[in-house]
Design a protein that fits this description.
Elements: E1 6-13, H1 18-25, E2 31-38, E3 45-52, H2 55-65, E4 69-70, E5 73-74, E6 76-79, H3 96-125
Antiparallel strand pairs: 1-3, 1-6, 2-3, 4-5
């Protein structure tokens, strides 16, 4: 937990600019990166993923800004764990459809095996 430097911020008003949010966040220390996205087309709020320079800065931002009102919206801040994405080698003959077909076939086989096992149990009980 001590190396968490990323913070998820939710309930950011739609009309808040990145610069405005940065000004608030940088009161606690340097911000390494920030990404702000709109949740979806229907809602009037955005969210942000912020990386602070250190865990302590991130912790202080969360402690002091959770519930902070900005344009009638109370901000919610949480530690956020970034999962490192790594490239994967995909076999040349890979096809999502063939994988899906294999899963369907495997599920059918599993159900058949369960049915056979149940039939055996029923026979033994008689």
């Amino acid at each position: 937990m001590e190396n968490f430097k990323h913070v998820f911020i939710f309930n950011i008003p739609e009309d808040v600019l990145k610069e405005e949010l940065l000004e608030i966040l940088e009161r606690f220390g340097p911000v390494t990166s920030i990404s702000i996205q709109k949740l979806d087309q229907e809602t009037q709020v955005k969210y942000a993923i912020v990386e602070f320079q250190s865990h302590l800065i991130a912790f202080n931002a969360i402690r002091n800004l959770t519930g902070y009102i900005i344009k009638n919206h109370a901000l919610n801040l949480y530690f956020f764990d970034i999962i490192e994405m790594k490239p994967v080698n995909i076999p040349p003959n890979y096809s999502p459809q063939s994988t899906q077909d294999n899963e369907i076939e495997q599920n059918k086989q599993n159900k058949q095996n369960e049915q056979n096992e149940q039939n055996k149990q029923n026979q033994l009980e008689k």
